[in-house]
Amino acid sequence: MNVEAAKGLIASPQVTWAKAYYFLYYGAAAALIPYLAIYYDMIGRSEREIGVLTGIAPLVTLVSAPIWGGYADRTGRHKSVLNIALLIATVAVTALSTVSNFMILIPIVILYAVFISPVIPLVDNSVMAMLGNARRRYGRLRLWGAIGWGISAPFVGWLIEHSGIHWSFISYVILLLTGLIVLNKLPVQSSGLTSNFWAGLRAFSLDRRWLSFLALVFMGGISLSAVSSFLFLYMNDLGSGNTIMGLALTTATVSEIPVLFFGDRLLARFGSAGLLKVAMFFIGLRLIGYTLTSIPVSFLWVQLLHGLTFSAVWIAGVSYAAEIAPEGLGATAQGLFSGTVLGISAAVGSLLGGILYQAFGAVVMFRLMGSSTLLVLVLYLLVERRIMAGRAA
């Protein structure tokens, strides 16, 4: 695809709908996710119960995202899966806002996690298929998700502060249902495999390139999970106020925009696998950076690395999954990537980070995990170099 054709595609109505969907979906996420723990606390749930409720989603995502992706690829019902998933996720969130009993909350949270987990993998798969040879420009569409998050978070926070926590759920439902309308304007990939599906899945699951990529994603995701789970707790221990914490979140969101916007150039320069290695390097630096000062406002500088860590990992993962997936297994590949970074990595990172935090404190925890990330990267590069040298010989 030449430059003019790529520019024409990026300006097409389909791409505009994709941008709108990312804006609405991540705007909805910003309205709900940061406030769930607060809601659980307000309805009388203990810290341990809150930990269980917030830890369910990553574990469910690990299993459900790849399964949904495989089902969509096997049957070709990508659009039906998306519509049903969004509707049931909306119902689950509405039910969540009306319940306070812990034993009833658990199945509702599981239901929500099961049906929200395939949404972004399926949308990303459709967007990458729509972009075709221009798929390196995926980041320019995805950055509208960061913009949606950045606009929604402070606005919904203001609504909650002035009118109550129920506005978190109301805002989420409105944005998600609006997104459902927009989604049906987007060309959702619907091709399916029949007899070749299981053979293709088996070969793909044993592809060493894919497995080594996911292994690196897994390690990076663990460290990123430690940041998302414990940074604000660490800042609170240091005496940080809510204003600085809010600025830290805003700084992280803003840092995503240039990385997403110039994602095509980063991919052209480093390739998908190379960009993941760059992200791993900055993940290690980011975690160690938090331990070099005890002044919370200084963390804002470290937060500028968020774009070169999370956003770079996401661009690299979505792009590599689209590149390496066999014909007709795109949604499965996106589900496996999403399940790794948002599922098992998030769960392990929260669990391991919590154990280290309680045993040694935040400084040691961040330094150990940051150093481990850099060490894994070095070992990976050494093994890769040896393999390449062996092939050359």
Structural class: mainly alpha
Over all CA atoms, what is the radius of gyration? 20 Å
Task: Supply the number of helical segments.
Answer: 17
Choose one word for the global shape. globular
Report the major sheet.
none
Measured by DSSP, the beta-strand proportion falls in under 5%
Q: Kindly report the average pLDDT value.
A: 85
Quantity of strands, as a count: 0
Report the order of strands and helices. Answer: HHHHHHHHHHHHHHHHH
Helical content band: over 70%
Low-confidence segments: 1-5
Q: For the terminal residues, how far apart are their CA atoms?
A: 36 Å
Describe this structure in words.
By secondary structure, the chain is an all-alpha fold. 83% of the residues lie in helices and 0% in strands. The chain contains 17 helices and no strands. The chain has helices at 3-10, 13-32, 36-42, 47-75, 78-96, 102-116, 119-131, 138-163, 166-183, 197-205, 208-237, 242-261, 263-289, 299-303, 306-324, 330-360, 362-392. Helix 5 packs antiparallel against helix 9 (166-183). The longest helix has 31 residues, at 330-360. The protein is globular, with a radius of gyration of 20 Å. It starts with a helix and ends with a helix. Mean pLDDT is 85; it is low at 1-5.
What is the gist of this entry?
By secondary structure, the protein is mainly α. Helix content is 83%, strand content 0%. Helix 4 runs antiparallel to helix 16 (330-360), helix 5 (78-96) runs antiparallel to helix 9 (166-183) and helix 8 packs antiparallel against helix 12.
